[in-house]
Structure formats: C-alpha cells, structure tokens
Automatic annotation (TrEMBL):
GO MF term (any one): catalytic activity, acting on a protein
Subunit structure comment from the entry: Homodimer.
PROSITE patterns reported in the protein's UniProt record: AA_TRNA_LIGASE_II
Organism ancestry: Bacteria, Bacillati, Bacillota, Bacilli, Bacillales
Gene source species: Halobacillus yeomjeoni
Compartments (UniProt record): Cytoplasm
Function in brief: Catalyzes the attachment of proline to tRNA(Pro) in a two-step reaction: proline is first activated by ATP to form Pro-AMP and then transferred to the acceptor end of tRNA(Pro). As ProRS can inadvertently accommodate and process non-cognate amino acids such as alanine and cysteine, to avoid such errors it has two additional distinct editing activities against alanine. One activity is designated as 'pretransfer' editing and involves the tRNA(Pro)-independent hydrolysis of activated Ala-AMP.
Keywords: Aminoacyl-tRNA synthetase, ATP-binding, Cytoplasm, Ligase, Nucleotide-binding, Protein biosynthesis
Gene: proS
Protein name per Swiss-Prot or TrEMBL: Proline--tRNA ligase
Length: 567
C-alpha cells in the first residue's frame, strides 16, 4: 500500500489525555482516533492490526468446532428481564427506547439473545454439544472511560457460547476453550496468566480470566512464587492458620476516642498495633444486613462475603441505614450489642484474638479488652479478607506475590443460570426434557491490541510481534525526486507484492527524518530503506525491535524477508 494515499495522521507529541503507552502510541502513530469519551475510530492501519487479532481468534475457535455467527447489537429488554439482569447488571448497561417506548439494551453481552435463539431451534440431545461465536462491537456505559482501548464504552469483543447436555460435556468444552484462549494469546506474543476469577454479573461458578502482565493493569493478580497458581486477588483463598492467643481475657472497658475515625487513628490513640483492633463494616447483602468483622490490618473482600451468602448483590450499607440500625456512623462500629436483624460474621483471623479493641456503636467511643466469644457472638467464621503478599499459596507451594494485569479474556461455566430462567430445554435419549448446560467465553479483541502495545514498545514507538504487525515490511524511498531511488523503490514494492509480502511503501515527498520517525512509530518489524546506493541496487534493511541492520542487493530481499519471518 502506498503511504501517500492512506489516512495515517501521526503526531509528534503525546495527546494530553493519554496516560498510558498504548493510548499514547496508538494515537500518535495514527492507528486510532477518539470520537467521544471512550469511543474510538480505527483508522486504516489500525484496522489491519485489529483484523490480524481477529483472524487468530477465528482460527483457534474453528479448530475446536465453534461456528461463527452474528447477533443483533440491539437487544429487547424482555429477554434481560427473563434472567433478572435488566436490574442486576447495573448502570453499565446502555438502555434505550424506540418510538413506541419499547425498551432495548445496546449489547453488552449476548447470553440472553443466544439462549432465546437456541431454545427455539435446538430440541434434541442429538443437536448437542453446540458452540457458536461472534466478533462484534459491545457497549458499556463506563463511569470513567480511560486508558484508551483498555476501558472504553464501545469495544470489539469475541463472545462465544456453548450448550451441552451434561456438566461432563461442559467440562470438555471449557477445557477446549481454555486451551484455545491460551493459544490465541501465545500467538499474539503476550506474557499472560490464566487466573481464577469471580463470575460477577455473568452468573455461574467456575471461571478464569486471562491476564496480560502489565504495570498499567487495573486488576491485581495473586500468584505463587514457586508454582503455576494464579488468581484474581478477589478470588484467592487465604489458607493461613492462626494460633489462639495465650493471653487471659480481661474485662472489657469503654473508652472515649474523640475525633478518631480510621483504624490507624484509633490504634495510635489507644497505643496498640493495627492487628490488635477489630474492623467492623456493615453491608447490605441482598435484603439482609450483615456486619463483617476482620482484624484491623486486614481488608474485607466483598466477593467472599457475597459467596458466603450466595448473594446477588453486596454493597456497603448507607450511612442512613447504619445509623438507623446501630445508632452511629462508620467510624465507631463494632460487633457488641448488635440488633438481632443484623448477622455478624467474622474472618478466621478474628477467632484467635484476645483483648482487642472495637467500636462501641457510639460516636467517639470504643471498647478495649474485647474477646470474641466472650464479649460478642459470631454467626459464622469464614475466609473474608483479601489475600496478602507473603501469605501461603493456596495450592500449598510457595508464598503469594502480586502483579498487575490487563484482563483480555474470560471463560465461564454458566451451568443452568440462563437456561433454567429462560426455559431452554432439550429432550434426552429417553425423551425426557432436560435443561441445557451453558458456557460463555469472551475475548476483548480491541483490548488485546492495546495490551500487545503495552508489552511491545520502546521510546521511539511500537514494536509489533511479527504476526500482528499491520505490514511485514515498511519500504522507505528517501528521495522520490531522484529517479534512481524512485525506480528502485517502485521495483522492490512490486516484487514484494508479487511474492505475497505485505508492504507499506512510504513514497511521500517528506524529509528523511520525518519518514524514519514515522516508521519507528508504526512499529513494522522490518524496514527497507532505498537511499544513496540505489544506483547500485543496494538497500538498507533494519529490524525494528533489535535495531540490527544490513545492506542487501535488490535480488536478495524477498528471500531475506521470507526467511526472517519463518525463523
């Protein structure tokens, strides 16, 4: 493709609103442009890279027997109401009304649509298992779109759905999809981890996220320093054991703590370490109120609270409800003399404590010398805190370390969550109606593109992996006004095209410095420069990622490029 005919607007400086490298470089190199907050156009060179990722995804999906289709982006609210997600999905779901005031959602995901389709078309076990996928734009009303393609309101996604006649069959499909995803991200050249995750609003139980390791990732991965164990920090269980304190319990005492709001404030005021205090938080868990108690130096993991109750919704209680139930605000809450309508659950670490402090449920007062079991009762002890670096790895091998990750893929075992609610059944081999067993699998295609840039760049621009780059060769004619350079560059361009090599030909009438700077920005793996030795048929070949360069005769170029890409 001749660069002089293309829309590739490059920038010398980083955009003011671009905080991370992928956002900066994709805009500067003319791959994307923002049209509104969190909404981007892919310009021609960006579309080429996006298609490379799409093609890898398609190939791996088809290898495991998944079939591509396309579903509407406009989804009737009635389908979402069948599963209850019209209300539980939250404010990220973009809702619109047509001229007849019928409610629709812009597709954030397609579980309801595909379940509706399959329940009408698939009737027998002989038609199962079935796996379909699509690559389509999705819409989510992010409260704070940021980081370019990593958190947008419109994005390109591959979503796949499987329908099985048994959980054993679902396990087989899940394993195939897991391996296909691993292949996709390996082929994209990414350093990633598959981690145990929470299903969130998707429903279902077993699920893994595929995380690209990156300091700009918004998710924290807990991983073992000696094994392959990895989990989203929300899902990593704490297996640490706690020895019961040998202190003799004392008589609790109510003390004034004026102006002390945080755990650290109270600990410093009372003269003890954070782990000698109790942190008490009031949550609304579906329709009930639950006080969650942890050690003062630990953080409550609300996903674990949700799992204890198998709840659909967990959120901190409002200040109004907190004062109504307990008579005080957040800074003085404690588990002593809690109303019967409030459950008290505590983290395992609390059970071993003796003579600790806690809020007195009275503004500006705390209790000291409090011992669980003596001074208050706990409904249930459970693992309720976030895992910490240095904790034992849940698989029994090594200790936990943290890394940040960008989520690029997610696989779910949905089970009967959707099919039961939407009455998606089939007749088994005995003619009895059974509920279909489902799986759901997503890859953020546009997000994957950005994640690749986060791992493949230097101070001059992008350094694409070989099979993801928009072109295989960037051909530069240094001075098209000189006939020998123009003629040789034109000949090489045609020769490369005839050989089936993807080439971007910079035939612009620009200064050499501009052409080199743009080439570095684009990140095409191999650059061929036609310059002063054109009359001899000699060109310079340079590898973008290593900086290695050599001089070649015109006749050697095709073999060099083909060998380089197959090595």
């Amino acid at each position: 493709m001749r660069q002089s005919t293309m829309l590739i607007p490059t920038l010398k400086e980083n955009p003011a609103d671009a905080e991370i490298k992928s956002h900066q470089l994709l805009v500067r190199a003319g791959y994307i442009r923002q049209i509104a907050s969190g909404i981007y156009s892919f310009l021609p060179i960006g579309r080429r890279v996006l298609k490379k990722v799409e093609d890898i995804v398609r190939e791996e999906m088809e290898k495991i027997g998944a079939h591509e289709m396309i579903m509407p982006a406009l989804e009737p609210s009635e389908l979402w109401k069948e599963t209850g997600r019209w209300t539980t999905f939250g404010s990220e779901l973009m809702r619109i009304n047509d001229r007849h005031q019928r409610e629709f959602a812009l597709g954030a995901t397609h579980e309801e649509v595909i379940t509706s389709l399959v329940r009408n078309e698939v009737k027998s076990y002989k038609q199962l298992p079935l796996t379909v996928f699509q690559i389509q734009n999705k819409f989510r009303d992010e409260a704070r779109p940021r980081f370019g393609l990593l958190r947008g309101r419109e994005f390109l996604m591959k979503d796949a759905y499987s329908f099985n006649d048994s959980y054993e069959s679902l396990d087989e499909t899940y394993d195939k999809m897991f391996e296909a995803y691993s292949n996709v991200f390996r082929r994209c050249g990414l350093n990633f981890r598959a981690v145990i995750a929470d299903s969130g609003a998707m429903g279902g139980k077993d699920t893994h996220e595929f995380m690209v390791l990156s300091e700009v990732g918004e998710d924290v991965i807990a991983y073992s320093d000696t094994s392959r164990y990895a989990a989203n920090i929300e899902m990593a269980p704490v297996v640490k054991t706690y020895e019961k304190s040998t202190e003799e319990p004392k008589e609790k005492e109510k003390v004034a703590t004026p102006g002390q709001k945080t755990m650290k404030d109270v600990a410093d005021y009372l003269g003890h370490d954070l782990d000698k205090g109790l942190k008490s938080l009031l949550f609304q868990v579906d329709e009930r109120f639950v006080m969650v108690v942890t050690r003062g130096d630990h953080e409550v993991n609300d996903v674990k609270v949700k799992n204890v109750y198998d709840a659909g919704m967990v959120e901190l209680a409002s200040e109004e409800d907190t004062k109504r139930l307990l008579g005080t605000g957040f800074g003085s809450l404690g588990p002593i003399d809690v109303p019967e309508e409030v459950d008290v659950i505590a983290d395992f670490a609390v059970e071993s404590l003796v003579n600790v402090s806690c809020g007195a449920n009275e503004e500006g007062y705390h209790f000291t010398n409090v011992t669980p079991g003596n001074d208050f009762e706990v409904t249930q002890y459970a693992d309720l805190r976030f895992i910490e670096e240095g904790d034992p790895s849940p698989d029994g091998e090594g200790v936990i370390k943290f890394a940040r990750g960008i989520e690029v893929g997610h696989v779910f075992k949905l089970g009967e969550f959707y099919s039961e609610r939407m009455n998606a059944t089939f007749l088994n081999d005995q003619g009895k109606a059974k509920t279909m067993i489902m799986g759901s699998y997503g890859i953020g295609v546009s997000r994957t593109l950005a994640a690749i840039v986060e791992q493949y760049h230097d101070d001059r621009g992008i350094t694409w992996p070989k099979n993801i780059a928009p072109y295989q060769v960037h051909l530069l004619s240094m001075n098209p006004k000189k006939e020998d350079q123009k003629q040789l560059a034109d000949e090489i361009y045609e020769t490369l095209l005839d050989a089936g090599i993807e080439v971007l030909y910079d035939d612009r009438k620009e200064r050499a410095g501009v052409k080199f700077a743009d080439s570095d920005l684009f990140g095409v793996p191999v650059r061929i420069t036609v310059g002063k030795k054109a009359s001899e048929g000699i060109v310079e070949v340079k590898e973008r990622s290593t900086g290695e360069q050599d001089e070649l005769d015109q006749s050697e170029i095709v073999d060099y490029i083909k060998n380089w890409y197959t090595s």
